[in-house]
Amino acid sequence: MEQFEMITRGDRSMPELLISPTQFRFSVIGDNQCTLASYNRRDYYKISLVLKGRSRLLYAHRGIDIPAPALVFTNPLIPYSWESGDESPAGFFCIFSDTFLHTGGRMENLQESPLFKVGGEPIYLLNQHQTDYLQSIFERMKLEADGEYVFKNDIIRNQLSLIIHEAIKMQPAMAYFVPANASERIAQLFLNLLEKQFPVDSSDKMLPLKRAGDYAAQLSVHVNHLNAAVQEVTGKSTTMHINERLLAEAKSLLIYTEWSVGDIAFSLGFEYASYFNNFFKKHSGITPLAFRKSL
């Protein structure tokens, strides 16, 4: 399995590094000297420059073979796995938040950009000229990230913009294949995406994915295809998985926080507290307030 690209899935084998308040960090692929102590994997985008090692990027319903060198863009809300071949991968990667890149009004929303959007083309195969140019940018980015210059974030944003615009000018790789175990992969990626939304850590933000159709859209599959795959592999419907996870999170928030029932309802994606009360009582036999008082 892949050694460096599982950051959006919390893979412990990936080299880790501390995310600073600048919301940007840089690392060399295969460098095990750094540690990632804290980051919200739902918020950080990733750009990887793979210089060596053949690998394969796998989404819910498609896969892409990646012969190095390649430039790879990954979105934190689109689950994937990355398998490497026999040769150890080498190159660079950086992770950054939408907020970091857009300070000063730069670029469009990343999820709507052609590089990161659902259904987009995330793999760009490079010729020698492109490889040399992009490697020089990544190396300069590393120097800035390690330096003390007070305006280094502005320089790094410029370098990220150069990488993004260089990729937009390229023709993306299109050598897709359908994985043999497509249903298992779709079901597993759905479960990964479901789990990514938890734990809920803010009462001011509503869960972005609430229904089966929301998950299907993120996975770029038809909702009926998603439902069939999840039912086939797990024996439960997509909606049942979502409801079970929402109920478990609701109970945890009722036990371990002092949030009001209304705040909990909002954070879990319920537009009205009455909808949350009905949901909770239907699936637990008791109201949220009665559950909290019984503890």
Descriptive account of the structure:
This protein is an alpha+beta fold and 295 residues long. It folds into two domains: 6-177, Sandwich (Jelly Rolls); 182-293, Arc Repressor Mutant, subunit A (Orthogonal Bundle), CATH 1.10.10. 41% of the residues lie in helices and 15% in strands. The chain contains ten helices and nine strands. Strands 1-7-2-5-8 form a five-stranded antiparallel beta sheet. A hairpin with a 4-residue loop joins strand 3 (55-58) and strand 4. The longest helix is centred in the middle third of the chain and has 19 residues, at 128-146. The radius of gyration is 21 Å and the shape is globular.
In short:
Keywords: DNA-binding, Transcription, Transcription regulation. With 295 residues, the chain is of the alpha+beta class. Helices cover 41% and strands 15% of the residues.
Helix-strand blueprint:
Layout: E1 24-29, E2 44-52, E3 55-58, E4 63-66, E5 70-74, E6 81-84, E7 90-97, H1 98-102, E8 123-125, H2 128-146, H3 152-169, E9 176-177, H4 182-196, H5 212-219, H6 223-234, H7 238-256, H8 261-267, H9 273-284, H10 288-293
Antiparallel strand pairs: 1-7, 2-5, 2-7, 3-4, 3-6, 4-9, 5-8
Helix pairs in contact: 2-3, 4-6, 5-6, 7-9, 8-9
List the keywords.
295 residues; alpha+beta; Jelly Rolls; Arc Repressor Mutant, subunit A; five-stranded antiparallel sheet; four-stranded antiparallel sheet; 9 strands; 41% helix; globular
Give the low-confidence spans.
Answer: 1-21, 32-40
Strand content: 15-25%
Task: Summarize the helix and strand pattern as letters.
Answer: EEEEEEEHEHHEHHHHHHH
State the domain count. Answer: 2
The percent of residues in helical segments reads: 40-55%
What gap, in angstroms, lies between the N and C termini? 44 Å
Beta strands, count: 9
Write down the overall geometry. globular
| Individual helix count | 10
Roughly how many Å is the radius of gyration? 21 Å
Give me the side-by-side strand order of the main sheet: 1-7-2-5-8
Assigned CATH superfamily of the largest domain? Regulatory protein AraC
CATH top level assignment of the largest domain:
Mainly Beta
Mean pLDDT: 79
> What CATH architecture of the largest domain do you see?
Sandwich
CATH fold assignment of the largest domain:
Jelly Rolls
Main beta sheet strand tally, sense and closure: 5 strands, antiparallel
Secondary-structure-based class equals alpha+beta
